[in-house]
Amino acid sequence: MTATAPAAVTTRGLTKRYGSHTALHGIDLDIARGSVFGVIGPNGAGKTTTMRLLLDIIRPSGGEVRVLGEDPRTGGAALRRRIGYLPGELHLASRVRGRELLAHYAEISGRVRPGVVDALAGRLGLDLGRPVRSLSKGNKQKLGLIQAFMHEPELLVLDEPTSGLDPLVQQEFLAMLREAKEHGQTVFLSSHVLSEVQQAADEVAILRAGHIVELATVARLRETAVRRVRVVVGEPDAAALRATLDRLPGVTGVRDVADRVGAAAFEAQLDAHVDTFVKAIGLHEVIDLTIQEPDLEQSVLGFYNEAEVVR
Ligand SMILES: Nc1ncnc2c1ncn2[C@@H]1O[C@H](COP(=O)(O)OP(=O)(O)OP(=O)(O)O)[C@@H](O)[C@H]1O
After folding, report:
1. Hey, is 253 helix, strand or coil?
2. SUPFAM superfamilies, per this entry (predicted)?
3. Protein residue with least CA distance to atom 6, ligand 1
4. Is 134 helix (H, G, I), strand (E, B) or coil?
């Protein structure tokens, strides 16, 4: 036995081709045990493909995968029981009631502690007595989440878990993620938008067209993200401030906005260079300064829109 447990998920050069189309171009991932790892990306980026490869629902065209130290191709039912999986598309057309369906899943996933299903249903606000085919999209999603969480697996693989959930239920789900992490479980989740993952994830991979275009901690994304700034100076200092803003690195879109009589205000976008900005602004007679919370969503859209990755 080694002193440290293996990473929850490791991939090296993971590649998936569908005919002539390459959905994943050799991605490398390391997801530490006990962490929450988010993968975000636009439609068709390869998020679902990555997750299905981890679950051995599909097989790689190349590269290596280890899940909880095992090869998913040979891990079989024993490995599967250590994982909770929420698929991106749930097909729940059955006449059976939620409780019966979960009992059926429990035969596959292994032991579920008494009370856990009811506790999860209570938290998410799901009536387990209704036939699953009569449930709304959001309520089906809750059922999917319960089946992923109920056996308290070592690894949770959640494909767009908040899809269809209202904001209150999303908050409850985020609390469930925090608790999972506190209990040492590992979470790998996907989303289209960062706002969902930034509250919960330690690390985020941005996937686009089968390539990881950015891999960073949420803290690091925040540091490099675009912020809106607003500076107000006395009228006599306006031209000098404008000249400073125009030459500062990381400052773009400077515009003159109306302010009270005798003062001039400028708004701009600032990326990363906060220290340089504050020091340069400090040379002027500043009446007011606002630096907004960074807009991570906008930064991520920048990654989505970057020129095609060439390999
Ligand atoms: N069974 C398949 N046969 C052929 N191509 C496929 C298949 N499954 C996925 N693809 C293609 O692989 C690429 C990645 O798809 P994938 O479903 O992994 O993306 P995604 O990031 O999960 O997207 P979304 O956000 O829309 O769910 C897409 O171009 C998709 O069309």
Report:
1. strand
2. P-loop containing nucleoside triphosphate hydrolases
3. 18
4. helix
pTM for this model (two decimals)? 0.83
SS3 179: helix
Q: Is 20 in the pocket of ligand 1 (CB under 6 A)?
A: no
CATH number of domain containing 270: 3.30.70.260
Closest CA to 190 of 179, 174, 175, 206: 206
Residue nearest to atom 9 of ligand 1 (CA): 49
**What is the structure's pLDDT at 221?**
79
**21 by DSSP, 3-state: which?**
strand
Domain hosting residue 244, numbered range: 226-293
Residue in the block written with tokens 């879109």:
253
The tally of CA atoms less than 13 A away on the side-chain side of residue 65 is 24
Q: Judge whether 15 lies within some domain.
A: yes
- Tens digit of pLDDT for each residue in 85-123? 999 887 877 789 999 999 999 988 888 999 999 999 999
